[in-house]
Amino acid sequence: METTPLLARPKKKSIWSRFNFSRFRKRELCSRVIYLGQLPEEEYPSNYVCNQKYNIITFLPIVLFEQFRFFLNLYFLVMAISQFIPSIRIGYLYTYWGPLCFVLAVTLFREAIDDFRRYRRDKEVNRQRYERIVLDSDINGYRPFITEHVPASTLRVGDIVMLHKGQRVPADMILLRTNETMGTVFIRTDQLDGEIDWKLRIPLPSTQKLPTDAHLLDINAQLFVEKPEKDIHSFIGTCTRLDEEESDSLDIENTLWSGCVVASGQATGLVIYTGSETRSVMNNATPRSKVGRLDLQINDFTKVLFVATMFISLLLIVLKGFDGPWYWFMFRFVLLFSYIIPISLRVNLDMGKAFYSWTIQRDKNIEGTVMRSTTIPEELGRIQYLLADKTGTLTKNEMVFQKLHLGNALFDKNNFYEVEAFLTQHITNDAAGPAPPAGDAGDAPPAPPAPRHVWQAVLALALCHNVTPVYDVDDQRADEAQSDMGSSVMSESCGGAVPQQQLCDYQAASPDEVALVKWTDMMGVSLYRRDLHNISLKLRAANEIVSYNILQLFPFTSESKMMGIIVQEENSQAITYYVKGADVALSKLLNSSWLSAECTKLAAEGLRTLVVAKKTLTKNEYLEFESEYKEARLSVTARAERTAACVARLQRGLALLALTGVEDRLAERVPQTLAQLRAAGVKIWMLTGDKLETALCIARSLQLGGGARWLAAPECGSRRAAYALLDSLAADADRTDLILEGETLEVCLRSYEEEFVELLCKCSGVVVARCSPTQKARVARLLRARGLVVAAVGDGGNDVAMIQEADMGVGIAGAEGRAASLAGDVSVRAFASLARLLLLHGRRSLMRSAALCLFIVHRGLIVSTMQAVFSVVFYFSSVSLYPGFLMVGYGTVFTMLPVFSLVLDKDISSTTALRYPQLYKQLTKGRQLSYKTFYIWIGISIYQGGVIMYGALVLFEEQLIHIVEISYTALILTELIMVALTVDTWHRLMILAELISLLMYTATLLIFTTYFDADFIRHWDFWWKVTTITLVSCLPLYIVKHMHRKWSNRQYKDIQK
């Protein structure tokens, strides 16, 4: 037998080739040929995993650059740097550099911690050790093989690696062998595509038949693999045994993608892609960076305040006169008024957002909720549109078999016992004779079904699937699974003899298939054993096993919308092709008068329908098909088209067997949650891949729309049809709930995008059936482009694009996996959590952030107003009113705790917020943080600053030397009182914050005699006059606040009525 040296190393490269700087050029992806046992000479990417954003050199420059891209931070950096110029220095350097350095230090620390965590995760992944087969040193002309344990980062294209149960696949590989007795292996792909169902993988026939892994070294094989692609659901390649002239086609079922986990047994694979060329890395697209509307509004407010600062500074210079170095004086004024733009605003808001996220995750009523994006919790408080998936989101994704239609008989849960009786009659006594042809059942007058007809339908359901029974084995036997260099062991799957009393679990890629197999088990036809080439059914009525050889398997694809299998009964050698799929795909291949009408009826009941058919093949017909199909699968170009053509020829002459209806049960409390959200003014659109009739039935049962009628849009294939649809909806859109298919939506958007989106927004409810993941994301993008706040909720990998595109993505950790949960800005366990998440937490987060933002702006504006009055009174002097220590203390020690305690405020109780969702509707108008409220608070700041400063001048006319003590004390008291006036519901921590701040300021007055005259402060005249100034500044605002609360209470009463 011809042999090749294993892992032959490529030739050494020249010195110049090592310094050709090719690493800086983007590598062109190309297909490759790999010889089994040889490392290719071409250079491929390293398998080193690196998710770090920085290194030691780039950390500081990149982080600083990212921070100073923001106008606010850049503004304060310029202000701080200017203090190094003596002629324009206002006070101590720490006055400006202290707050800025604190903000930067917090950011640097957070980024460093996050990057260090990424480094530790990467290090852990890179250091995971794997068994690699290599040749030992030459002994008398023979090189025996050995296994060595190497880290994942050192693996290269061409390496042969052994993987054990529970191990992560370190690189993209081709499955060569497995020790599973059934000849296949299961893998978990939840970290790749989010689906939690185990996937079946098949080794290459030419290598699986070898006795042990050691024999892989004795063959001469060549593998051709396509260039690296992003698509994780397809693969094209070939494997040719040069020593036996045997070829195998490579498909997706032969692959092990990086990031998957071996779920059973042991697998031996050949590395074909590493590092950046693996499927998992190529699909790691950076999601859209989401910025909340609150942050955008604050950025706009900051620009307005900057313009105000420049205007006031220029105005004072104009009044002072352009004498001397006026530009230096103007810059000093800009520095003096820099507190108009508070640097603490960003810090307080970020801390508030972290607190909101913490409270959401601690809410026991929505246990399991995780805020993955802590930067936009306020977006939950202004949602206008909610885009929801159906399966697994509004429904449980728990499939229950409900109906079986045979054309002349309909069976449901009330008479399934009749099916079992027919099966028993057929299995024990076949005297009833054959049933009439299934394809003509609808044309004949109704007659009771024959036992043979029922048997054929149930047999098709028991055979046509990709379900594998998996039996429990004890851990001791599982631990005995070792490398099969010389032996094999029994695995967890039921390829070997399985005791009848062992519990069986079904593994499949779709819960629909599991529901069908469980139903046939209830009827007495159980899936007992399955491997790569055989499938065994246990017949309860006869207590016997019937075995079938699997000749071909055609997996389900989104293009074909069907799956099929060709089996040969071991006893009779009869060959049958079974196929099941969507009615839209199979109805074209069948000639039946009853199928279309019954599909519509079952879909109207909210059931997912599947059509089952079969075709009997002669041996010659099968051999002819096998030859054509194998040739098509070995083709490298146009493989999909050629194989589809072969299968299409096979599907001619199909006979209809049955129509099945499977129910996807509604999730808990979904109708009540939808009703609450509709009352809150949130419009709910359902985007699903199901057929129109099923989607419409679910929408009706959920009471999804709020209109007077449901209108099913006719199919539109042209611009004229789209215009007709627009014209028919224009008159009564606001009272109509619209349901349409994805193709119709595509045509209408292509022809009349603006008009159609505007029309959809007017509808009270919208359902899009047969909607692809790309269309879901596009709908979210179209709504966002029109300034609407959009939330998207889903539970499957096909919802990730929509979740990432929406303003607020909500992922549900459900039966379809974790992809949506990990991609979402917030993860919940059930759709019902959305009511509390939006109506309570979203509302509070938005209102608290708005109050916090306005109050911090007010805190900076009031002291800047006082500075302006001081400068005007004292002959336009550009001297600071307060020393640097007092300015820093004003924004931190004396007022920080009371102001930040506003994040604990509650305007209404949680019970009221959920009982009257109409209160949420007011938030979507954006009145809590608008230019109107912003200017109102500017007016309040100017009024209070003017009152404090002019009050001090009037009441202390003969004691102006103590202007600092007078005005600063009134300023602190005013701020503490304003916090008290802003609070709606007192919390004990709020009271504590007020008392601590007051005590700290009192202690400062007595201790820091450098800034304050203790004798003057102890005088009674000081306190009553300061109290008078404070009351004049706050009392009018208290009256206004009291009237506003009365008006708000009246609104609440109107809503309650």
TrEMBL record:
Residues 41-97 form the P-type ATPase N-terminal domain. ATP binds at D389, K390, T391, E513, F556, K580, R608, T688, G689, D690, R770, K776, N798, D799. GO terms for molecular function: ATP binding; ATP hydrolysis activity; ATPase-coupled intramembrane lipid transporter activity; magnesium ion binding. It is found in: Endomembrane system; Membrane. GO terms for cellular component: endosome; plasma membrane; trans-Golgi network. Residues 148-279 form the P-type ATPase A domain. Belongs to the cation transport ATPase (P-type) (TC 3.A.3) family. Type IV subfamily. It catalyses: ATP + H2O + phospholipidSide 1 = ADP + phosphate + phospholipidSide 2. Pfam families: Cation_ATPase (PF13246), E1-E2_ATPase (PF00122), PhoLip_ATPase_C (PF16212), PhoLip_ATPase_N (PF16209). This is Phospholipid-transporting ATPase. Its main location: membrane. Its EC number is 7.6.2.1. The chain crosses the membrane at residues 94-113, 301-319, 325-345, 850-876, 882-904, 934-954, 960-982, 989-1010, 1022-1040. Residues 430-444 have a biased composition (Low complexity). Gene3D superfamilies: Calcium-transporting ATPase, cytoplasmic domain N, Calcium-transporting ATPase, cytoplasmic transduction domain A, HAD superfamily/HAD-like. PROSITE patterns: ATPASE_E1_E2. Keywords: ATP-binding, Magnesium, Membrane, Metal-binding, Nucleotide-binding, Translocase, Transmembrane, Transmembrane helix. Its cofactor is Mg(2+). It comes from the Eukaryota.
